[in-house]
Amino acid sequence: MAFNVLISDPLSEDGIQPLRAADNINIKIDTGLSNEELADRIGDFDALLVRSQTQVTRDIISKGKKLKIIGRAGVGVDNIDLNAATEHGIIVVNAPNGNTNSAAEHTMAMIMSLSRNIPQAYHALKNHKWDRKRFVGVELKNKTLGVIGLGRIGTEVTVRAKGQRMNVIAYDPFLTEEKAEKMGIGYGTIEEVLSKADFITIHTPLLKETRHLINARAFQLMKTGVQIVNCARGGIIDEEALYEAITAKKVVGAALDVFEKEPFHDNKLLELPEVIATPHLGASTFEAQESVAVDVSHDVVGFLTGESVQNPVNLPSVPKEIMTKIEPYFNMAEKLGLFLIDLTQEVVEEINIYYAGELSEIEVAPLTRNTVKGLLKRHLGDHVNDVNALYLAERKGITINESKTSKTKGFTNLLTVEVKTKSGKRQVSGTLLNGLGPRIVKVDNYSVDVTPEGHLVFIHHKDQPGVIGRMGSLLAQHQINIATMQVDRSDIGGDAIMMLRVDKHLQENELEELKALAEMYDVTAIDL
Ligand SMILES: NC(=O)c1ccc[n+]([C@@H]2O[C@H](COP(=O)([O-])OP(=O)(O)OC[C@H]3O[C@@H](n4cnc5c(N)ncnc54)[C@H](O)[C@@H]3O)[C@@H](O)[C@H]2O)c1
Ligand SMILES: O=C(O)CC[C@@H](O)C(=O)O
């Protein structure tokens, strides 16, 4: 099977070598498309690779009928409608590490340019003005740098600022006093950081919560004479409020790499001499561009060829060593889900998943997703996948609970899936036998030993002599061969079950005839 990959923003040619080297991948590079053009063309592609320019909107995603993966060569995914991608079962991957160094160096270049008026002085010189008085700067040494957002880039900036002998104080919702102490920096609330800093640098993502984080109120808290840098995302600083703060002489310098609207030809902030700017160049180094393109290309190739990805954005990332432990259970988890939904044939209100034995000791979220995928697939079709299974369950109002126990009922590992419906609960348990693969070992309260594969028939009946014979003759009349058969019962003459593996799918009329046998309570055909 061949996959078509569209690259719609300029990516490093060296960086996309993993894509070029992969078998069965056709690459089309088409940069500078309008949204309408992209929406028109996206239907032919299995993967889309972008930087920050292409806006991957809900409309484009919904027109990507074959689209399976969107790769973002960089960190910020605010140009991709993540909810729409998740709803459509499209995985989004990014390259969070490849441009950290470049962005941190750019931030430092901005801080140093600001402190010494380098762009303004250069501009004056170019205009034949030798002016030394106007461009007297300030030293960074002993000044306080306020870092808002101490993630990858914020941390790297901190290290460099300390090298400049600056005092650093940071705010990040995940920063503790102990961690700050270990890093040799100060720690405070956002208000404290804003009010103590001589220079402020922003390194948060652009989220609902961080849009206009630096607004008129934030500027009021700052020292008069503060200088501010934004190499994170436009929109985190309210540009109108920044304009006001600069004209009111509260802020005496601003260095901006990112803007509320990009690209632009006019932005009134650039009319102010206190503002220096670059056109979103934080990640624009040869090294960073190659590195992010390599990372994202590897993930796209990996995903299209059925391997796990390193940097999923809309799926929790699972470390490789944990993935190796849980991957063998994926198939069983999905099959248990499929089995149970066939058995239940009712509206599911709640799904309870019990992990026992070895399974209770590992990260099981991917197994939960596979189980739910199996449960939903029968009715929602093959577009249910790891990415959207939990979202779709939530949208259907189904509650999902996971629990772990060390009690294994004699198995080294046991995965039990239970669904709650209006009429009660149904359960199936499976185990992975070393070297033999998965087995269904329990259905409701009955013990069985069945490989979850092929055509199964689950029969609930009254325990009575002759019932097995009558069932066997009926199937024989229809030329249906029984490959394996298991029976169990609650007590003599009480409720009993049969689990058959047959060689072909049972037709509706054949099921009805089986159900019509006197001892039968219920007969369900299950195809796995
Ligand atoms: N200019 C560029 O070309 C360029 C290049 C790379 C990254 N970026 C941008 O830089 C930013 C940081 O990237 P990163 O790789 O360091 O991300 P990161 O995820 O490693 O770090 C972001 C940090 O922000 C913190 N945060 C979230 N909300 C916050 C809030 N309200 N207040 C304070 N901190 C908050 C998070 O806890 C996290 O530690 C992103 O916006 C990214 O898109 C820009
Ligand atoms: O594509 C770019 O050059 C910008 C990337 C940068 O903003 C990011 O978030 O990684």
UniProtKB/TrEMBL annotation:
One Pfam match: 2-Hacid_dh
TM region(s), chain numbering: none
Superkingdom of the source species: Bacteria
Catalytic reactions on record: (2R)-3-phosphoglycerate + NAD(+) = 3-phosphooxypyruvate + NADH + H(+); (R)-2-hydroxyglutarate + NAD(+) = 2-oxoglutarate + NADH + H(+)
Keyword Cytoplasm: no
Amino-acid biosynthesis among keywords: yes
Name of the protein this chain belongs to: D-3-phosphoglycerate dehydrogenase
Source organism per UniProt: Virgibacillus phasianinus
